[in-house]
Amino acid sequence: MHEISNQEFARFQDFILKEAGITLSAAKKALVSGRLDKRLRHFKLNSYSDYLRLLDSGQDPAERQHAVDLLTTNETYFFREGSHFELLKECARQAGDRGQSLRVWSAACSSGEEPYSIAMVLDAVLGGTAWEVLGSDICTKVLARARVGHYPESRATQLPDALRRRYCLKGQGPQAGTLLVDKGLRQRVRFEQINLNKPLPALGPFDLIFLRNVMIYFNADTKRQVVARLVGQLKAGGLLLIGHSETLNDINDTLQPLKPSVYRKP
């Protein structure tokens, strides 16, 4: 494996901060080296400085995205932090009672377990007509997996049995130990590549936005900018849900806290 110098690592820290708003601690030096070493070998480069020059040259935009994909951490599973899905269920019931549709955005959705969990709840409560789910991530690789909707069963330990039976196919034979999200549900979830660290495309307005377990990778300034962008995509009265270990204290004073990790736009 190629050795990475402190100076080269600092340049990759700057690269991923500018590209994705992610702050890499010094403890991530071995991770960066391990994930990018294969790209040096692919291009037959002698050093990480040579690879940085390739990225900065602009000659291969796809490789720049590839580097972002490799440096982005993705970890998720179905129905993570279940209290948020109970809240979602109640919001769906209220929307159904009013005869209204519901639009939900899973920002930084990784490989898709979160938006599919959202879709299962909405379909079970609202049926086939009155809801929409968008899943987005900066990483093209995980979005490709999300669109397929094929997962190891280990990602589904929190998935309620009734929803598993209704919306998932159990793998048999060579696919044993996996599950496939039902095609009808997959077709109702839209995935887009979106960089939260840059101006957003016209997406909203949404009733709920899930931005969970993402801000832990951002510094304070990036958190403020990202949350401000997402607030602009929320309807009045809409909800922003963040991870249970996260807070918007000193990050945003527009949203009203309803309960830990749940905020409402006035």
Structure report:
By secondary structure, this protein is α/β, with parallel strands linked by helices. The protein folds into 2 domains: about 5-70, Chemotaxis receptor methyltransferase CheR, N-terminal domain (Chemotaxis Receptor Methyltransferase Cher, domain 1), CATH 1.10.155.10; about 85-265, Vaccinia Virus protein VP39 (Rossmann fold). It is built from 10 helices and 10 strands. The chain has helices at about 5-20, 30-45, 50-55, 60-70, 85-100, 115-125, 140-150, 160-165, 185, 220-230, and strands at about 100-105, 130-135, 150, 170, 180, 190-195, 205-210, 235-240, 255-260, 260-265. A hairpin with a 2-residue loop joins strand 9 (about 255-260) and strand 10. The mean pLDDT is about 95.
Percent range of helical residues: 40-55%
Mean pLDDT: 93
User: Total number of β-strand segments?
Assistant: 10
Please identify, by name, the CATH architecture of the largest domain.
3-Layer(aba) Sandwich
Walk across the major sheet and give the strand order. Answer: 6-2-1-7-8-10-9
Distance between the termini: 53 Å
Shape verdict: globular
